[in-house]
Amino acid sequence: MLDLVGYIDAGTGSYLLAAIASGAAGTWFFIRSSFAKMRGRGGDDPIVEVESTSNDA
Fold first, then answer.
1. How far apart are CA 44 and CA 33, in angstroms?
2. pTM for this one?
3. CA 52 from chain center: how many Å?
4. For the residues of 11-39, what is the DSSP string, one character each?
5. How far is CA 57 from CA 49, 50, 51, 52, 53, in A?
6. Does residue 2 register a pLDDT over 70?
7. What is the pLDDT of residues 7-54, one digit of tens each?
8. In sequence order, which residues have a C-beta less than 8 Å from that of residue 37 and are 6 or more positions away?
9. Is 10 helix (H, G, I), strand (E, B) or coil?
């Protein structure tokens, strides 16, 4: 019978843990912003134009 032994070294393990954590956080923020847009609480803010007060003429 073939026995497989798995080993993840510390650098690879921390990289995988960081990738999983950032993926989970990104998914959470995407879902939260999607629900906010559906409820009308988020999304595109109106563009506010600011008049220039400098004399560049």
1. 11
2. 0.53
3. 34
4. HHHHHHHHHHHHHHHHHHHHHHHHHHHHH
5. 20, 18, 14, 12, 11
6. no
7. 878 888 899 999 999 999 999 999 999 888 888 865 555 555 666 666
8. 43
9. helix
